[in-house]
TrEMBL record:
Cleavable signal peptide: none
Family: Belongs to the HEBP family.
This protein's name: SOUL heme-binding protein
Any Pfam family the entry gives: SOUL
Organism: Ceratopteris richardii
Domain of life: Eukaryota
């Protein structure tokens, strides 16, 4: 169940996943009971303090720019993470030197600002993604990615200038995400990755190696406490049971 909390000016989206158990009178065929079991809490009693805290947590303000972003559907929202089913999307990417470094960022931004085979300027999207195939401390397999407009195709996009960047289509996938605000320092990002992986394993899910950091805001124009950052880990599989 997804809804917008219209009583607040930023209209936060509330997401609840879980199981509904309905009781039926066998004689009349009418419903006589209805109990919801949320994936994000353990105390599912009618007056649950834990449920109230879970609701209030979702009211936090994260500044998300009004820009195009990859499409996904939330399949499960647990206590600290959510599992998403992402549709395919295309990125322009360049090699980075370290996870929190800036090498490669200019290459991908230059591409969308018109330094490409046709001189075409490409509209901004969000987020900017830093991806690694290994760990945050690795200096290999790190890339900086910018999401390209969703209606684009590899055949319709201009080619990057030689030696600067490449275009790649990321396939649809199941991804676990943990959202947080603040300055996305290397230490904080690593802590979030460890927390996410531990929670996934505890819930019987199988995370793949490597992870991504998605940053939705311009750090020079957005207060750190309202920035939307996410650590994302791809899953081997996910089955709604």
């Amino acid at each position: 169940m997804t809804m917008q909390f219209a009583l607040l000016p930023w209209r936060p989206e509330l997401v609840f996943t879980g199981t509904s158990v309905m009781g039926i009178n066998p004689t009349t065929g009418k419903f006589i009971s209805h109990v919801d079991y949320w994936d994000s809490i353990k105390d599912n009693n009618y007056f649950s303090v834990e449920a109230l805290g879970d609701l209030l947590k979702q009211l936090q303000y994260f500044k998300t720019p009004d820009l195009e972003t990859p499409k996904y559907r939330v399949l499960k929202r647990a206590k600290i993470y959510e599992v998403r089913d992402y549709e395919p999307f295309i990125v322009v990417e360049s090699q980075g030197d370290r996870f929190t470094g800036s090498k490669g960022f200019k290459n991908v931004t230059n591409y969308i600002f018109g330094e490409n085979s046709t001189g075409e300027k490409i509209r901004m999207t969000t987020p900017v993604i830093t991806s690694t195939v290994d760990s945050i401390s690795s200096t290999s397999g790190v890339s900086i990615q910018i999401v390209l407009p969703l209606k684009s195709s590899l055949s319709s996009l201009p080619a990057p200038s030689p030696g600067t960047a490449t275009l790649r289509e990321l396939p649809g996938s199941f991804v676990a995400a943990i959202k947080f605000s603040g300055e996305a320092t290397e230490e904080l990002v690593k802590d979030k990755e460890v927390l996410l992986r531990s929670a996934l394993v505890a819930d019987g899910l199988c995370p793949k190696p490597g992870f991504m950091l998605a940053r939705y805001n311009d750090p020079g124009r957005t207060w750190s406490w309202i920035r939307r950052n996410e650590v994302l880990v791809m899953l081997e599989e996910f089955d709604l049971k």
